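Illustration 12: DUF559 domain-containing protein.
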Amino acid sequence: MDALAELSRRGGIARTATLNAAGVSAHSLRRARERGDVRTIRRGWVALPDADPRVVGAIERGVILGCVTAAEHHGLWVPEVGALHVVAPRHAGRVVVPSRVVVHWSGPVVPRSPDTTVDDLVNSLAVVAQCQPFETALVIWESAMNKGLVDAARLRGLDLPAAARAVLEQARPYADSGLETIFLYRLRWMCLPMIPQVWIIDRPVDLLIGERLVVQIDGGTHVGPQRARDIAHDAQLVLRGYTVLRFGYEQVMERWSEVQAVIMEAVAQGKHRA
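Figure caption equivalent — predicted structure in token form:
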């Protein structure tokens, strides 16, 4: 079996024992190393030259990508990408990493295979719940649920840490983006009916507060034909008696107090009532 093809299939990095078990001969690996097509990154581990440097750096140090870094790797909505997070075995000794890297000594909820380079999604969510502020954790969990990668019934059957169970109690799969999750979480104190992704006329709106107050949230790429369609839809909503408030990413993430003040005034004027 071709060593490069098998390594590529496994994400560009793998244990030599796993490659051998898959049919890659020691001779094939040795020749690949000699040609510079493959390099040894740690005893028993090899990688392609273009393998993800974050994964390679983690394996070199005996850890794996975890927490918010793994969540991002799994395609989840992470509000802010900051320091690199890695996971070390709970009883591991001293781990030498750059100062900007956050190390979690974490026992897994789901057993980790010896071939793991990026922590399992469920394990990542559990660590996120213990590491991140509740709102950030909720955003990431709801992103996973909305994408259909996990569901509440499956998670309830696992031995989750207390922080993860607290997030699970509030997480719902309905928010179509992290911004919608943030809206719902930050406005929960108003004790008003708030439903994300309600279908009105011919398409869903981001959030319906009460019966008539529509909130539309524009992401960072909300431009061009999509924006034109949304503006036209807003006009149809207004003609049917709805009040439409539209906010951008920067407003929600950087100027929340202004956003909340507008919503509070709209509610005070009864714009949420039929």
